[in-house]
Design a protein that fits this description.
Helices cover 60% and strands 0% of the residues. It has 85 residues and is mainly alpha-helical.
C-alpha cells in the first residue's frame, strides 16, 4: 500500500527533492494507469495521440483532486513525509 501512495505522491510532485507537479509522464501513477488502460508500452498500438492526451489529462486531473482532498483533510503532509521515509 505504501508503494502505491509513493507512486501517487511522486506523480503529483511530492517526491523528495521534487519541485512540483506537472504533466510529466516519466513514471509513477500516470504510467501505471496508462499501462492498465493499454496505452503504455510504446510502439504503434492503435492509440491516437488525441486519446493519449485525453487519458493523460484525466490522470492529472485525478492526481490534482486527490492532492487537494488530502490537503483539505490535513493528510497531504503526512503522505509526503511517509514517502520521504
Amino acid at each position: 500500500e505504501l508503494e502505491n501512495v509513493r507512486s501517487q505522491v511522486a506523480a503529483m510532485g511530492g517526491a523528495p527533492g521534487g519541485s512540483g507537479g506537472g504533466s510529466e509522464s516519466g513514471g509513477g501513477i500516470v504510467d501505471s494507469i496508462k499501462g492498465a488502460l493499454g496505452l503504455g508500452g510504446g510502439g504503434d498500438d492503435g492509440v491516437s495521440e488525441e486519446e493519449l492526451d485525453a487519458a493523460e489529462r484525466l490522470v492529472q486531473e485525478y492526481a490534482d483532486e486527490l492532492q487537494a482532498h488530502l490537503e483539505d483533510v490535513g493528510k497531504w503532509e503526512q503522505v509526503r513525509v511517509a514517502y520521504a521515509e
